[in-house]
Amino acid sequence: MSAAALIDTHCHLDAAEFDVDREAVVRAAASAGVTVMVVPAVERANFGAVASVCREFAGCMAAYGIHPMVVERAVEADLDALRATLAREPAVAVGEIGLDRYVEPRDDARQEFFFVEQLRIARDFDLPVILHVRRAIDPILKQLRRIKVAGGIAHAFNGSRQQADELIKLGFALGFGGAMTYPRALRIRELAATLPAEAIVLETDAPDIPPAWHAGGRNAPEQLSRIAGELAALRGVAVDDVAAFTARNACRVLPRLPH
């Protein structure tokens, strides 16, 4: 267990899975040393829920965006709503946005349109972005080189070392969480062990991507303490050092987080 404060850079605390016990989930996270949680929206319909959660619970910080896996039901007016929300509500990033080349069927052109427009919004508001990058890192890099934003986080990173290095050059940190805890996740574990410490942030993606010891269960931010312990073991350092450098990195790439 870590004595140092931990930052969960990706936690969908507004999700319906937490409706029955959200307050208890937040208390358990605090008891496990998780003092700050970034709560990314996924579509216009949950902007209000994210804002409400972040008003209710100290340490919860909002990001607003339209996820690539929901763009089929998004409309262009949602982009105007995103701008209006960012102008009205405190936010640490635009997110969760990006591309997904895994789920079928999908509309790649529609994903690309909403991704590009949201990069422009992030640029206009001088906000970093929280990226969904599943099997889509190269096309995402192409757009990031074209539309310059203030860095951010590549959530649930599972690319190559070369792709990692390119994202780092563009001012991004890489998010590691439950997937890293599975012994067969050799590439993720190798990256977690060998990337520069300055490139890594911690996340849960709760209620999704539970760690190995909780496989099949509802993930929750309290798991971040043991996830930090796994990263410490992979890197051969103290868990408090992991908590310290990952929190420092999170505050660097998301400068509106509480320091």
Question: Which short descriptors sum up this protein?
Answer:
globular; 8 strands; 259 residues; eight-stranded parallel β-sheet; TIM Barrel; single chain; 14% strand; alpha/beta
CATH topology: TIM Barrel
How widely separated are the two ends? 22 Å
One letter per element, helices H and strands E, the order comes to EHEHEHEHEHEHEHEHH
Share of β-strand residues: 5-15%
Radius of gyration, in Å, reads 17 Å
Low-confidence stretches: none
Structural class: alpha/beta
Count of helical regions: 9
- Provide the CATH architecture: Alpha-Beta Barrel
Shape: globular
> What is the averaged pLDDT score?
97
Q: Helix content range of the residues, please?
A: 40-55%
The CATH class designation is Alpha Beta
Counted up, domains total 1
Kindly report the spatial arrangement of strands forming the biggest sheet: 1-2-3-4-5-6-7-8
* Main sheet characteristics: 8 strands, parallel
Considering the protein shown, what is the CATH homologous superfamily? Answer: Metal-dependent hydrolases
Summarize the structure.
The chain has helices at 22-31, 47-56, 77-88, 108-125, 137-146, 161-169, 186-194, 224-235, 239-253, and strands spanning 6-8, 34-40, 60-64, 93-98, 129-132, 152-155, 172-176, 200-202. The chain is α/β, with parallel strands linked by helices. Helix 8 (224-235) crosses helix 9.
Textual characterization of the structure:
- There is one protein chain.
- With 259 residues, this protein is an alpha/beta fold.
- It has one domain: TIM Barrel (Alpha-Beta Barrel).
- The protein has helices at 22-31, 47-56, 77-88, 108-125, 137-146, 161-169, 186-194, 224-235, 239-253; strands at residues 6-8, 34-40, 60-64, 93-98, 129-132, 152-155, 172-176, 200-202.
- Strand 5 (129-132), helix 5 and strand 6 form a beta-alpha-beta unit.
- The protein is globular, with a radius of gyration of 17 Å.
- The relative contact order is 0.17.
- The model has no long low-confidence stretch (mean pLDDT 97).
